[in-house]
Amino acid sequence: MTAHDVPGEVYEWLISDEKLGPAEFAATFDDDLSLLPPNADVLDCSCGTGQLAVGLAARGMRVAATDASAAMARRTTELAGEFAVSVRTLQAAWEALPEHFDDGTFDMVFCVGNSLHHAVGAEGRADALESMARVLRPGGHLVLTSRTWEVVRARGSRLDIWDRLVRRNGRDAVVVYRWEIAPAWEDEHRIEIAIAQVDTPGSVVARSELLSCWPYRYDDLAADLQRAGLRIEGSTFDGKSDNYKVVAIKA
Ligand SMILES: C[S@@+](CC[C@H](N)C(=O)[O-])C[C@H]1O[C@@H](n2cnc3c(N)ncnc32)[C@H](O)[C@@H]1O
Prior knowledge:
Helix content is 29%, strand content 33%. The chain has 251 residues and is an alpha/beta fold. It has two domains: 3-148 and 216-250, Rossmann fold (3-Layer(aba) Sandwich), CATH 3.40.50.150; 150-213. The longest helix is centred in the middle third of the chain and has 15 residues, at 121-135. The termini are far apart. Mean pLDDT is 93; it is low at 1-6. The site of S-adenosylmethionine (SAM) has 18 residues, from loops.
């Protein structure tokens, strides 16, 4: 199963509590949003269940939200309806963005929340970043967050059982990640995510999804961004933390 097929219900257990609300998710990007003009055109190009897109729309921006998964695009449309905001939602993989949007359409493109590693290999990643760059206007910014794969690979294949219950819609669950780290960086890696939900007292309902991903070093990402015509303006990469953010400007 690829990331496109994963039902939104699994992701909802994985989003951190502080990002569950659209306003809170958008607020985590306050520094980046301060670069934008009023009524900016923004794109969340791997929108997942829609929290960021809806949070941006609630701030008055013109928001488009795309995802390779039809189920995710649908969840985003539903969330926009719940919050009574307008979000133009489409099913579109990164490579297909230029088919849906003119070059230079957006002031800011977001690709956040451990999404880019789903691009298939170095070629898929380069194509994805090139598409994101094309739909940005000159002077526009790409905001990208990523797992630090240097750290993930150093830990090797393993089982991670989260150390506290996650609560969603009045239900508790234990979340387990099984990491399959391939010998070479270039190889397909896998993450199996299991949600063991405490259903009625004494019973547990478990679901698991197997995701494929293609990791990359920070230096590879930096080179890919440069090739796509994007210059890194800010980066939180330190080689030690689990995640980082890169902000890159289109020349
Ligand atoms: C881990 S989720 C992150 C969702 C959201 N950005 C967040 O932070 O909650 C990764 C998302 O990337 C999407 N995705 C995977 N491959 C993609 C592709 N080729 N093009 C666009 N989206 C893709 C998946 O469907 C999924 O919604």
